[in-house]
Design a protein that fits this description.
By secondary structure, this protein is mainly β. The protein has a 24-stranded antiparallel beta barrel. It is globular and about 80 Å long.
């Protein structure tokens, strides 16, 4: 008996050591040479022009956990003002190029929760000049040289920089000149860095420095080290930025009449890694959203924050963990805050710590928030405290939230978070808090995540978001992918599932969700999914079905990413020109709901695309009239140049939406037309738009907005 106990204890100890031990990794280091002569950015030039650079191979395929199937050589050098990078990529499949304009997507997996937004073959550079706890910078380009960028410094990060590309038989070459002046925390010595290549036709992601067990290519814990020469980088503060704007609107009296206004956003660096920023008479006419939302949608929109005042420090807030988040809740959701007439804020990093605060002053209201966070130097631990206050007529609300995240850098991760709400709307303080804890096991082809949650009935912060108060229970989800060899017609088969159960204080079960899915992906980019499940949420005394329980989807020109599911079910992304057919049926509310979605995007020349959608919902009711609604849309987008684009959207909704929460707010006939044009210049941007794609019916207004950037570039 005793020997059995010892054997079991030994086995448990061995498993614990195995799970937590550091795996063998290829964390690479290299010195970045200082150029003695100018380097050419012509991608057609011979590599001999880059003789002074250091050469780095990309040898590991992260999602497939194997050596790279295609060769990629990266050349790196600096002249003290720019980091010069050249990618030479050989490829046995045709090179995919659809993006012809800059700043259309953010492709790296860090910015997209593990998914890659690029629908093209692409390469990118990740930089962490001050280590894991500092700002991350990402510079990306496809084979034509069209580029995008991202940074945790500012979600609107979009400075001017240079990239070029050329494709040829058997591969492509991309060159980049990354301006060091837009990077906070620049210094001589060690920078964490990663060089990455995405192969669209196979879903492969090749990296320079790697750990054979990593799941994200942009993982700072696996990134390599670049040693910048002492004479390369001036350690001055970044330049301040002033972005005044002028907007003119011609509109009918029904749309509010014609008007004009001016305002400005200001950012003043205090140190290399901190800044004071402010906004005066800001504009939120949605004109800056038109490039992304011109193709209308019938479902309720969830807005991403684009107002510069709120985006500059967005990465400091809401960094708490969350698993099985159908009941999503947070103490700060800035789109809920009306545009202030003026605002003042601070954000900064110092070593492993970050701090941010803002004060938004509006009409008869004041909204403020502050956050402090810590990230360990090995990136295994992250903690944050956040405080939010809303003060408006008749209502004062204060919420606090604290959380801790942990990652073993191998398979395991976990988190715990706790929040409270207090103020005018809180009638029962014992029901005004929330607690959420969970853990996960993640590999490139398998994941399992679980959580327990309790959200009080009176937890509903004014400046936050709580999808479903008064719940307590558990949830988990899992996904598994099986990969096939290169000679098979199948690329992958996956299964996934989700289950949660939550109780309320008065009526017992308050929420239950369950999903099962089967996914089959072919190498020719056909993706078939079959699923079943149900969702029940309690509204008052009634537990109501709020989703259908059976269906399928078929996509042609699917993505080929291998992701076991960032939420529950295997997914592969999409291409630039997908065709998608979706059907779902089952109980919904008091009736039965059949839903069809049919969408396609067709390439028109090298720079244009037409997107078409014909969808319908039919809710068959037992005693009341049926609810039937049709949605039809057409959109045309044209990438005029690297710096300009045009989009036109048409939409018509006809009928009655399902009940509850279905189909949007249109009852009867709602039609919308909108047109948007955008051009970006060296120090300015112009937006011109007619209508508003976010409204149910056409808004008869024409808007022209001019923004000038003095000092640092956009978002820098």
């Amino acid at each position: 008996m005793r020997s059995t106990v010892f054997r079991r204890a030994g086995l448990i100890l061995y498993i614990a050591i195995y799970l937590c031990a550091t795996t063998s990794a290829s964390t690479l280091r290299t010195d970045v040479p200082k150029l003695k002569a100018n380097v050419t950015l012509d991608p057609s030039a011979s590599t001999k022009a880059w003789d002074e650079s250091v050469s780095l191979p990309l040898t590991w395929d992260v999602p497939h956990q194997r050596p790279a199937a295609d060769a990629t050589q990266v050349h790196v050098a600096t002249d003290g003002k720019f980091l010069y990078v050249r990618f030479d990529a050989t490829q046995h499949t045709p090179v995919v190029i659809s993006q012809q304009s800059d700043d259309l997507v953010t492709g790296g997996s860090t910015s997209n929760g593990g998914s890659i937004s690029w629908s093209d073959d692409a390469v990118w550079v990740d930089l962490w000049p001050t280590g894991a706890g500092g700002f991350q910078y990402q510079f990306e380009a496809n084979a034509s040289g069209s580029h995008n960028e991202a940074s945790t410094e500012n979600t609107a990060f979009a400075p001017r920089w240079e990239s070029h590309g050329t494709a040829y038989d058997g591969g492509y070459t991309v060159t980049m000149a990354i301006p060091l002046g837009v990077i906070h925390g620049q210094h001589s010595g060690a920078w964490r860095a990663q060089f990455i290549r995405y192969v669209r036709s196979t879903g492969a992601v090749y990296v320079w420095s790697y750990d054979s067990l990593q799941t994200l290519p942009d993982d700072v814990a696996r990134a390599g080290v670049l040693t910048m020469p002492a004479s390369s980088v001036a350690q001055a503060r970044p330049a301040p930025r002033i972005a005044p704007y002028a907007l003119g609107s011609v509109a009918s009296s029904a749309a509010g009449g014609s008007t004009s206004r001016v305002g400005a956003d200001v950012s003043i660096p205090i140190t290399q890694t901190s800044a004071f920023f402010s906004t005066f008479h800001p504009d939120y006419s949605n004109v800056e959203l038109d490039q992304q939302t011109i193709a209308p949608t019938v479902v309720q929109r969830v807005y991403s924050e684009v107002r510069p005042f709120f985006t500059q420090a967005a990465q400091f807030y809401d960094t708490f963990g969350c698993n099985v988040c159908l009941d999503f809740h947070t103490t700060l959701y800035t789109p809920a805050i009306p545009t202030p007439s003026q605002g003042y804020a601070f954000e900064g990093k110092q070593g492993d710590f970050g701090v941010a605060a803002f004060d938004a002053i509006g009409v008869q209201r004041n909204d403020s928030a502050a956050a402090v966070d810590y990230t360990s130097s090995d990136s295994q631990w992250h903690s944050e405290f956040q405080h939010v206050t809303a003060d408006l007529p008749g209502v004062i609300d204060d919420s606090n939230e604290i959380g801790l995240n942990w990652n073993s850098l191998k398979y395991l991760n976990g988190y715990v978070r706790y929040a409270t709400d207090a103020g005018t709307n809180v009638l029962n303080p014992s029901q005004s808090s929330s607690i959420d804890a969970g853990f996960g096991w993640q590999s490139p082809t398998f994941n399992f995540n679980a959580a327990i949650k309790k959200v009080g009935e009176d937890f509903n912060p004014v400046d936050g978001y709580d999808a479903h108060p008064d719940i307590a229970g558990y949830g988990f989800y899992a996904g598994k992918i099986w990969l096939f060899s290169g000679s098979d017609k199948l690329e992958a088969i996956g299964i996934g599932g989700l289950l949660d159960r939550y109780q309320g204080t008065l009526y017992g079960q308050s929420q239950s969700d369950q999903i099962l899915s089967l996914d089959v992906l072919t190498k020719s980019a056909w993706d078939f999914q079959l699923y079943t499940g149900s969702d029940y949420w309690r509204f008052g005394e009634t537990l109501t079905p709020v989703s259908q329980n059976a269906g399928f989807s078929l996509m042609y020109h699917s993505g080929l990413q291998e992701n076991p599911g960032s939420f529950c079910c295997p997914n592969h992304g999409s291409s630039a020109y997908p065709t998608w057919l979706y059907y779902n049926t089952g109980r919904f509310g008091d009736g039965r709901l059949d839903t069809w979605l049919r969408t396609t995007t067709i390439r028109v020349g090298n720079r244009g695309a037409v997107s078409l959608a014909v969808d319908d919902t039919a809710q068959w009711m037992p005693t009341t009239p049926n609810n039937i609604q049709w949605f039809e849309s057409a959109a045309y987008s044209y990438q005029i140049s690297r710096d300009s684009s045009l989009a036109i959207g048409l939409r018509r909704v006809d009928g009655t939406p399902p009940v509850p929460n279905g189909g949007g707010n249109c009852i009867g006939k709602c039609s919308n037309i909108s047109v948007a044009y955008h051009i970006r210049m060296k120090k300015a941007e112009i937006y011109a738009a007619y209508g508003d794609p976010n409204t149910l019916v056409t808004v008869p207004q024409a808007i022209v907005k001019f923004i000038f950037y003095a000092g640092s570039g956009k978002g820098a």
